[in-house]
Amino acid sequence: MHKDDLGLHAAPEGAQAVERWRELIDLLRADLDAIAERFAERARSVPAYRTGPIPQRDVRQTARESIDALLALARDHDASTPEGVVNEREIRAIADRIGVRRARADVALDDLMSAVRLDFSIIWDELIRVAEPRDAMLLVTRANSLWLAVDHYADRVRESYLNEREVIRREASAARHELLERLIHPAPLSSEMRTRIRDEFGFRDDDHFLVAFAHAGDAQALEESAAVLRRAGITGITHGRGAGRLVIWAVPRETGHKQRLINTVDGLRVGVVDDVDELDDLASATHTAARLAASLTQSDRGALRLTEGWARLARAALREEGVDIRARVDRSLRGLRGADREALIHTILGYLELGSVSQVAEREFCHRNTVLNRLRRFEQLTGLDVTVPDDAALVVLAWR
């Protein structure tokens, strides 16, 4: 059996049995919140889950994710189908995240494995609850394959946990920590220091780098994603910075790995500086990534790069000097009614994005004269003509 195969391969069955099995699984998946609650209650019998550092909300959420993924795998158990491939990838990713999270929380491995293997008893009890007497033989034929799936899932969690504990051990190495701190310190690196850093972290002379930073609330997701990427052979250097988390990746040369790294980072709420050419540039890249992460808003759902976030950084720097560009522009529009103000702002933002009156009119389904009138109205109110580059830059600083 392939080491990544989760082992859910039932004997061939008739179409009627397969359909009934899927009906039972769908009943359970429709009741996931209650099942996760029952898991959390039963998990309190495990010491680390009763009095340890894991919040009950976390226990319920991870239980919901893992049980749902195992049920999806059980429902479409043929791994040769596209659905089966996706389900197996998903359950492996969940196993990796849980292993990392519990390793970072310093949960004992025995406690973790006890909790993970509760998945089988919970799923089995729920199947018994929703099944009818006519389903007895179906449950018997499925029991072993379901147990194998949970067992392989538990093995994956264990492997991820042990890998992360080794990463934590290496991070705690005084020499490694010292070199990493030196790498992200703004002082220039000596030739000898560059050699030591390359040797320690496995960097090559012509490597390019991607830096990601997450502040407190988003740090765990970055940490877990870095661990999942490690399992795929994409290794980054992780480092705690206060309540935040920093990860530095040497950008993979293999196209598929490079794209997977970019896709993963793009889905995280992090500040990102990519295509860093030199070791000496990593210190400033780290600082910039941290500033970008600090400028993320509640509406941001993915990574923020300098190309999209430069205006936020500039606005914050000006505010530190006592110049609040946004407040100035917003005060000028204070006298407008809600709908008029919203329409004016929408048009101005559209023009800043497209730079064309005709294109803005087409997108907003209005006459180009309407757009021109709004541009003039904005200039009258604020003194800023967004068709003039210098004025447009100020509005970008205010609103982007």
UniProtKB/TrEMBL annotation:
Pfam families in UniProt: HTH_30, RsbRD_N
Lineage, broadest ranks: Bacteria, Bacillati, Actinomycetota, Actinomycetes, Micrococcales
Signal peptide range: none
Parts forming coiled coils: none
InterPro entries linked: CdaR-like_regulators, PucR_C-HTH_dom, PucR_C-HTH_sf, RsbRD_N_dom
Domain of life (superkingdom): Bacteria
Every RsbT co-antagonist protein RsbRD N-terminal domain range: 33-176
Gene3D superfamilies from the UniProt entry: PucR C-terminal helix-turn-helix domain (1.10.10.2840)
Protein name, as recorded: Helix-turn-helix domain-containing protein
Organism: Pseudoclavibacter albus
PucR C-terminal helix-turn-helix domain span: 344-398
